[in-house]
Write a structure and sequence with these properties.
With 144 residues, the protein is an alpha/beta fold. Helices cover 43% and strands 17% of the residues. The chain has six helices and five strands. Strand 1, helix 1 (22-33) and strand 2 (37-40) form a beta-alpha-beta unit. The longest helix is centred in the C-terminal third of the chain and has 17 residues, at 127-143. The chain is globular.
């Protein structure tokens, strides 16, 4: 639990071998402007790097960007690894161009939620939507 003076920590980065950093940079900037402590891991981040950073900073969420289409492969098993590492209540968000083939967004969203992500965002989502969702989700987790 954070005190009123502590900023809530959020980990951001681009998972796997994806080097497209614009989306995560925009989200990181918006989160910082919204008053959160953002730990930016950059591009080509492994699952374990996300987990280690979350543990080290007592983060409340991991926000992942991916635009090269292989996010399902890169993020498979992340929720389980978080649980094994003592991060069972961490919020997981992912957004971008998540699949290599065009499919209904509802199918993509369902797949990632089944993988344990709390929120899934399509390309072009404005950062404010993730921030609003994060604030809402924090309230739900704090009351649990």
């Amino acid at each position: 639990m954070t005190t009123a003076k502590e900023k809530i920590s959020v980990i951001t980065g681009v998972i796997g071998i994806d080097c497209h950093i614009v989306g995560t940079s925009l989200v990181s900037y918006a989160l910082t402007q919204a008053g959160f402590k953002v730990v930016r891991l950059g591009a080509c981040v492994s699952q374990q790097e996300f987990i280690n950073a979350a543990i080290e900073t007592n983060a409340r969420a991991i926000m992942i960007s991916s635009i090269y289409g292989m996010a399902a492969m890169d993020a498979e098993g992340l929720r389980g690894k978080c649980i094994e590492s003592g991060l069972s209540h961490i919020l997981l968000y992912i957004g971008g161009l998540l699949t290599p083939v065009k499919e209904k967004w509802e199918d993509t969203e369902r797949r990632f939620k089944e993988m344990g992500f709390n929120r899934v965002y399509p390309p072009g989502t404005l950062p404010q939507m993730a921030i609003d969702d994060f604030k809402e989700d924090l309230g739900s987790v704090d009351q649990a």
